[in-house]
Structure formats: structure tokens, C-alpha cells
Amino acid sequence: MIYYVCEPKRILKTGLIFVLVLAGCWLLLKFYLMQEQPPVNVEVDVQQSAKTYDLNDVKKQEFFVDCRLTRDRIRSQQMEVLKEIAANTASSSETRDQAQQELMRLTERSTMEAELEKLVMALGFKDAVVLLQDTVANVIIQQGSLTDSEKDQIRDVVVRVTDLQADDVLITCKP
Question: Which residue, 26, 111, 116, 172, is most buried by CB atoms nearer than 10 A?
């Protein structure tokens, strides 16, 4: 067996040297950080980077964003309830199946709404919100007014994507 014996004085000296080395490094780092660095000149072209925002445009966008958020929040709550019903083993199998089918319908409806909004905006409209129900589609367009041909274009797109008839598509303008 090998025993290693350390002398207390030697341990104290080693510890003191270690502390002094750390203090020296800290002082050098502090001295380096306190030295003045040469100033950096940054030129910003204020005219080019300044953007003008029309308060009316912001308010118009808020309406459409708020519509989508409200729709998504309500849909999310509905989906949570349906998921709980579908996962509840105490529910009858028929009830669970109905909940799963309704979950599928809500998912399909969400997908169609997003697709329709993009397709309507692709027609040249600034913004649109589509709210689908079982028997009707509500389309809100960000525009002061629409011509009959523009309404027909929107109806055609909605009818193509959904199983609804043209009379079941309600179009509203929101300036």
C-alpha cells in the first residue's frame, strides 16, 4: 500500500498561489474591459429606413386578425371538448365515434378556410376572412365595395373548394 502524505503548509502555499493567479487574471480582464474602445460610427439613412404607417390600415388589419384569432380560439375550444369525449372510456363507443367524426370535420373546415382565404387574396383582394359552417360560407373582404363580377369570382372559388351552392356564399365588404 502506498500512502501519500501532504503537509499542511504545502497545501496552504499551493492554495494561496492559486488564489493569487485567479486574482491576477481577474484584474487583467477587468483592466482590459475598462480600456476605451475606439468609437464605432454607424450611419443610418433615416429617410430610407423610415416607414410610414397609416393608422386606418392598421385598424383594418386588426379587424381581420381579430376575426381569425376569435375563430381559431373558438375552434380550439371545440376541439378540446371533442378530444376529451373521444378519449373518455366511460363514453359509449357511438359517442366517441361521433366526437372523432366531428373532429375530422372541424379539421377539414379549418383547412378549407385557410385555403379559401389564400385563394381569395390571390384574386387581388388585400385581405379576406372565410367562416365556414355546415350550410353557409361567410366571406369578409377588405374592400369598400365589390362589383358583381368580383362577387362572382369569389363565389366560384368558394363553390369549387366546398360542397356549397353559390346561393349559400355570403360576401361582406369591410372597408
Answer: 116
